[in-house]
Amino acid sequence: xxxxxxxxxxxxxxxxxxxxxxxxxxxxxxxxxxxxxxxxxxxxxxxxxxxxxxxxxxxxxxxxxxxxxxxxxxxxxxxxxxxxxxxxxxxxxxxxxxxxxxxxxxxxxxxxxxxxxxxxxxxxxxxxxxxxxxxxxxxxxxxxxxxxxxxxxxxxxxxxxxxxxxxxxxxxxxxxxxxxxxxxxxxxxxxxxxxxxxxxxxxxxxxxxxxxxxxxxxxxxxxxxxxxxxxxxxxxxxxxxxxxxxxxxxxxxxxxxxxxxxxxxxxxxxxxxxxxxxxxxxxxxxxxxxxxxxxxxxx
Length: 299
What we know:
Blueprint: E1 5-11, H1 15-26, E2 31-34, E3 46-47, E4 56-57, H2 58-72, E5 75-77, E6 81-87, E7 90-95, E8 100-108, E9 130-131, H3 134-137, E10 145-149, H4 153-162, E11 168-173, H5 180-187, E12 192-195, E13 199-204, E14 208-213, E15 218-219, E16 223-226, H6 233-239, E17 265-267, H7 278-296
Parallel strand pairs: 1-2, 1-8, 2-5, 8-17, 9-16, 10-11, 10-16, 11-12
Antiparallel strand pairs: 3-4, 6-7, 7-8, 13-14, 14-15
């Protein structure tokens, strides 16, 4: 490792990412794990069907995993990723605080987004003005009026991205929860910020034509991007050219060595599809960590 360069960067600090970190670090690779542990769906769950371990809570499981990974030599960065790219044989990672990192190999272990607003109009207008992916659909809203909904890096970076496309951009947030650098950046931008607000209803018949906030305020928009949480796994994977499963286009395709179609990029855990079990995530993380470390050592 040299400064901001690593053999392996793991995106995601759930069971798959932690297991990958343990094995890769023990294989003498320099490892950085990114993500906040409380974001893992396991952190709010109880685990009682994992072999050789009695009933435990997910938070304890994750904390023990972090301790093991650190003892093995892995480093942690509690930030979200907002941009991924490839430059020759290196992968470039940009974090929410503006750090730029490099790695020889990459493991996608961010899980999948299950977050929806659950408000009237969301389901009915999906694909007709409602989107869950700024990176995927921004180009369809050139010159439009849009709202981005969410509190974290996906929403904040998404709103700033939409400034390059839309005529007017609103950010609807209960509480902006990003790094100080990113928060300052959006507050100095042309994004119209509505804080301490939620969405009551998405308006429209066959197309979005408005948004009602929790206090009854109506915004004149024709696009709503729901970006709850960190940058989605599928968005980050797609910018790198990683292939998704042909049937649903929701999960990353891997082989038995957890390799994707892009040399140097591996994936493990929920991002690879069901079943949603810790045992599966840990097993895939083990394989991905060993394979990614071996790949990085080729250089």
